[in-house]
Amino acid sequence: QVQLVESGGGLVQAGGSLMLSCAASARTFRWSTMGWFRQAPGKEREFVARISANGWQTIYASSVEGRFAVSRDIAKNTVYLLMNSLKREDTAVYYCALYSGGNPPTPSYWGQGTQVTVSS
Fold first, then answer.
1. Which residues pair with 4 in a beta bridge?
2. CB 51 within 8 A of CB 35
3. Measured distance CA(89)–CA(82) in Å, rounded
4. Exposure winner among 3, 51, 95, 116, fewest CB in 10 A?
């Protein structure tokens, strides 16, 4: 049984920062790659960032590279997404995902999403 719960979304001005959290109930959390995706109105869900099980490797979409930082607290079964220098284009529903194995790994479980709105 896997449950992912996102929090931290809200309204923020362009140039500001926001921290998203994803609390995972999965027993396999510490062995799973975790990631973040987002979906803006009228667009398909897109990859944002992911972090390896041990937290040492991170990958970012080009659109957020250098502005966002993904991290995890294994002891707390929680993944974070720190979003800096937010742009209006970052407005979307952000989803936490737990990945299955494979090469490349693929997301298998999803949270309900949290809305992030960036004002111009």
1. 24
2. yes
3. 16
4. 3
Beta bridge partners of 116: 10, 92
Residue 61: both structure tokens together: 């979409």
> In whole angstroms, what separates CA 79 from the centre of its chain?
8
CB 100 within 8 A of CB 88: no
Taking only the tens place, the pLDDT of each residue in 50-65 is 999 999 999 999 999 9
**Residues forming beta bridges with residue 20, ordered by sequence position:** 81
Which residue in this structure is represented by tokens 């790994």?
A: 105
CA distance 56 to 4: 21
Torsion sign (Cα): 73, 74, 76, 77? positive
- Two tokens at 5? 């719960």
E runs forming strands in the chain: 4-7, 10-13, 18-24, 34-39, 46-51, 58-60, 68-73, 78-83, 92-99, 107-110, 114-119
CB contact at 8 A, 53 and 33:
yes
